[in-house]
Every structure is written in structure tokens, then in C-alpha cells.
């Protein structure tokens, strides 16, 4: 009998993860209630119809909150809901255990997990590990914060796969049993301060990735990152496996000269190829490549597939992605730059003088590191969204002249003005250093809008 049988179960939030959690739990014997803060008319009707057919009672907004059962055994929360959300307070008062969708997926799965987290590079490394598994012909699923809910991957698993999951800090807040066989910690930089409050608290939540690991598990971590370098001293039970862009004395993945290598610190030494052969742009992607290679190797992926992937993997949409060349100007979509540290890497990866489009949702980030990268690289910056004024103030403190700072109402004006300001040999770079919420549903929609506007510029020259 299912452990969920005869229980009242609440799905809090009917976005991608909540809907997937409801599908995963349907048919396991529990009474399912799904609640969302939006009215039913604001949600995909085909999803609601499907959940209805699966026996899920869907409730909405304040009226639905009041209609929840008096007793709730389990609440599965979407990562976008903060721990003090009224629906979770209601569930806790009703006696519920509160877990996240990732935790649910882990509990329901028969497969080993590789979990990838960090402030920046998660999606690239998750996808790169998946590519290595693909080239090796090994069964796997790529899921998590990357776009496909882990619950959806588990719903369709055969039991033979390795689950390769991108994990956010929001998801790590609500784990209980989640234990990846291999954890990957890429870096820690200030992000989501509106939710976590301090860098120390943010790091504490990130470090939950390996809190349930045991001695036969592995933790791949960035020895070049100040906070990540402390991981072996945090009571880590798993085997610590560092990566670095400099040579390492013991075992790990590293760069020596122009070659990437992997060693156990004793007899094993594997050449992974030349840094120059990487298709991924930017020095930060050398670290990403090393992290992915280490995790894949520990997971049993053959070295030939790791080498081939490093040589051929060309990156992801909206991450320093070339859109078009128009009148000698290169247009680059880095909409995935949703925090200052990520956007600094994009600025450093672009070799041309930059006309930068920036700004967006207010996450209480410190933009000092971001704007310190402007002098000598950025010629003009066009700002939009809630953070425009704070970025402008930070830029001036960084020594960037205010005459090169332009405020725009929206993306349309940004692209139009950028095209006027850019000179042949320049790059127009969208790397906002901010989330897209408030203007767009997500960074993908923002990147697509930018690209469509750029391509419209190209057509106007026909």
C-alpha cells in the first residue's frame, strides 16, 4: 500500500512543479487538494481539467484557502512560496508535514540523483552532465530547476535512470530526506537577498545539498570559491572532490597549463583535453566544464563521452547566446544573467566594447561588483525596470560617467536606443543582473522578446 494512502495531501501552488507533484501523487490513494493564489481563470485550463479527471480538488485564492480540510497530513509546496505564506501557515496549523516538490520526487523515485547547485552556472553544468550521459548512451533524466519538474521525470522513470537535477536554494529550504549520490556545489555569490536576508543564510541553505550524504557519496565543489572551499570543514560525510582552474595537489579536476585533467591524487590521471577546445565562451565556463566532468566521471560516464561533450557542447539559450550581427554590431542574449555575479561573467566573456541592457525585478542585490566591471568594457548602459535607479547610482560610484547611463521605459526602447548608440565592432549585450518578474514571466520570455526585437531591426534594414 502506498505511504500516501488515506492521507489528506495539499499541493500548494499550481505552477510547473505543483502540477507535476499532483500528477505524481494521483492514484496513490490519498485525497488530493491543490490550491493556488490566482483565480482559476488565470491558470492553464487544460491543466485544471486534467487534474480534475485525476481526482484532484482544485481550490483558488482566498475562498479556496478557507475551504481547505481541517486536517492535512502532507503539504507539498512550490519553490516560489515563502515559508511564511498563509497557505503554509494554514497547512501547519492543520498538522501537515511540509516538504517541497523536489523532496516529494526524491521520496517517490527508485533512481540515484546527481544534484547541482550554486549561484551561477547550474543550468549549464546540469545540461552538460546530461550531454555526457547522452553521448555515453546511459539512461538519465535532466530535471529540476532547469525547467522540467523532478516529479515529472520521476513519474515517467523506469528505475534505470540517473536523475540529473538542477537545485535552487528555494528547493533546498524544504528538503528532509533528499540525498544526492553526487552533489555539485559551483559557487556562492549574493542572490535572492529579498528571501534569504544575508549571504550567510543563503550559503547555509545551499549547503543543505550535502547534509544527508553519506561516506559512499561524493561532493564535487569549487576550490576557487571562498565559501565553497570551506565545505570539507563543515562536517561533510561524503567524499570531497574539488575542482579548480589551477593545479591541485591532491585529487580533483583542474587545469595545468592549457590542459584540463582529472586525478585521484595517486595513480589515476586523466587528460580531458585543451581549454582552447571548449566551445563554451568565457573563463567561468572552464570551471563549469571541470565540475561537470568530475560529476560525470564519478557517476561512471566513460572518459571518451566526457571528452567529446567538452569539445562539442556549445551552450544554452539565453546564456551569452549570439542573436544576430547587424551593421557590424553583434547582439547577444544573456537574459539568464539574473544576478550581478552572472552578469559580470557575461561582461568579461564579451571581447567587444559593450552597449549593455540591464535592470529588472528588485531582489535587494548589491550591484557594486556588477558596475565595477563597466569601466573599460561598457560604453553605454541602458536601464529599465524596478532596479534602474539603483544600478545607475552604483555605476556612478564605480566611476562610470552618468552621461553614458540611459533610462528606458521597456525592452523595446532599450533595443531601439542601443541600436542607435552602438558602433561597428560593438556588442549589444542583454545581461540584466536581475530577475525578469514584474515585466516578464521568466528569463526565457525576456530573452525571446529581446531576440525578436533585434531581428525586427535586421528586417528594417532589408
Span between termini = 66 Å
The CATH H-level superfamily of the largest domain is: Mur-like, catalytic domain
β-sheet strand percentage: 15-25%
| CATH architecture name of the largest domain | 3-Layer(aba) Sandwich
Taken from the alpha-carbon principal axes, the silhouette is globular
Broad structural category: alpha/beta
Cα-atom radius of gyration: 23 Å
CATH class of the largest domain: Alpha Beta
Describe the structure.
By secondary structure, the chain is an alpha/beta fold. The protein folds into three domains: 8-100, 3-Layer(aba) Sandwich (Rossmann fold), CATH 3.40.50; 109-312, Mur-like, catalytic domain (UDP-N-acetylmuramoyl-L-alanine:D-glutamate ligase, 3-Layer(aba) Sandwich); 321-460, Alpha-Beta Complex (Protein-Tyrosine Phosphatase, Chain A). It has helices at 16-25, 45-53, 61-66, 86-93, 101-108, 122-136, 150-155, 169-172, 193-196, 199-206, 284-298, 303-312, 340-349, 368-372, 388-397, 411-421, 443-460, and strands at residues 8-12, 31-36, 57-60, 74-77, 97-100, 113-117, 140-144, 162-166, 182-185, 218-222, 239-244, 252-256, 259-263, 269-274, 321-326, 329-333, 354-358, 378-383, 405-407, 427-430. The strands form three sheets. A nine-stranded mixed beta sheet has the order 7-8-6-9-10-11-12-13-14. Helix 1 (16-25) runs parallel beside helix 5 (101-108), helix 6 (122-136) crosses helix 12 and helix 16 (411-421) crosses helix 17 (443-460). The model has no long low-confidence stretch (mean pLDDT 94).
Amino acid at each position: 500500500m502506498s505511504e500516501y494512502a488515506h492521507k489528506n495531501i495539499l499541493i500548494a501552488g499550481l505552477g510547473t512543479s505543483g502540477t507535476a507533484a499532483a500528477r505524481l501523487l494521483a492514484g496513490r490513494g490519498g485525497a488530493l487538494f491543490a490550491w493556488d493564489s490566482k483565480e482559476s481563470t488565470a491558470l492553464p485550463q487544460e491543466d485544471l481539467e486534467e487534474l480534475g479527471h485525476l481526482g484532484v480538488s482544485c481550490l483558488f485564492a482566498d475562498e479556496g484557502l478557507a475551504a481547505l480540510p481541517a486536517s492535512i497530513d502532507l503539504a507539498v509546496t512550490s519553490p516560489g512560496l515563502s515559508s511564511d505564506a498563509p497557505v503554509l501557515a494554514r497547512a501547519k496549523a492543520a498538522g501537515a508535514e511540509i516538504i517541497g516538490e523536489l523532496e516529494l520526487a526524491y521520496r517517490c523515485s527508485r533512481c540515484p540523483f546527481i544534484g547541482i547547485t550554486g549561484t551561477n552556472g547550474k543550468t549549464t553544468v546540469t545540461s552538460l552532465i546530461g550531454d555526457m550521459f547522452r553521448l555515453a548512451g546511459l539512461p538519465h533524466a535532466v530535471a529540476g530547476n532547469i525547467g522540467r519538474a523532478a516529479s515529472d521525470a520521476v513519474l515517467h522513470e523506469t528505475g534505470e535512470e540517473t536523475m540529473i537535477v538542477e537545485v535552487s536554494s528555494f528547493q533546498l529550504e524544504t528538503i528532509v530526506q533528499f540525498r544526492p549520490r553526487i552533489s555539485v556545489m559551483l559557487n556562492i555569490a549574493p542572490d535572492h537577498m529579498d528571501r534569504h536576508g544575508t549571504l550567510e543564510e543563503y550559503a547555509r541553505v545551499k549547503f543543505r545539498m550535502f547534509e544527508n550524504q553519506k561516506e559512499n557519496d561524493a561532493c564535487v565543489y569549487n576550490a576557487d570559491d571562498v565559501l565553497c572551499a570551506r565545505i570539507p570543514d563543515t562536517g561533510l560525510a561524503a567524499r570531497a572532490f574539488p575542482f579548480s582552474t589551477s593545479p591541485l595537489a591532491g585529487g580533483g579536476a583542474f587545469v595545468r597549463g592549457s590542459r584540463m585533467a582529472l586525478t585521484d591524487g595517486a595513480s589515476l590521471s586523466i587528460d580531458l583535453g585543451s581549454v582552447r577546445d571548449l566551445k563554451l565562451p568565457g573563463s567561468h565556463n572552464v570551471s563549469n566544464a571541470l565540475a561537470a566532468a568530475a560529476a560525470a566521471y564519478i557517476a561512471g560516464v566513460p572518459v571518451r563521452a566526457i571528452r567529446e561533450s567538452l569539445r562539442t557542447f556549445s551552450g544554452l539559450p539565453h546564456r551569452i547566446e549570439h542573436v544576430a550581427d547587424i551593421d557590424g554590431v553583434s547582439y547577444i542574449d544573456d537574459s539568464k544573467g539574473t544576478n550581478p555575479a552572472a552578469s559580470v561573467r557575461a561582461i568579461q566573456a564579451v571581447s567587444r566594447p559593450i552597449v549593455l541592457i540591464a535592470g529588472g525585478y528588485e531582489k535587494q542585490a548589491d550591484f557594486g561588483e556588477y558596475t565595477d566591471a563597466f569601466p573599460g568594457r561598457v560604453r553605454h548602459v541602458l536601464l529599465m525596470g524596478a532596479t534602474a535607479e539603483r544600478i545607475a547610482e552604483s555605476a556612478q560610484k564605480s566611476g562610470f560617467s552618468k552621461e553614458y547611463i540611459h533610462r528606458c521605459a521597456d525592452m523595446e526602447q532599450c533595443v531601439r536606443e542601443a541600436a542607435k548608440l552602438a558602433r561597428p565592432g560593438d556588442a549589444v549585450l542583454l545581461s540584466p543582473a536581475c530577475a525578469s518578474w514584474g515585466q516578464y514571466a521568466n528569463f526565457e520570455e525576456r530573452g525571446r522578446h529581446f531576440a525578436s526585437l533585434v531581428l525586427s531591426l535586421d528586417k528594417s534594414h532589408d
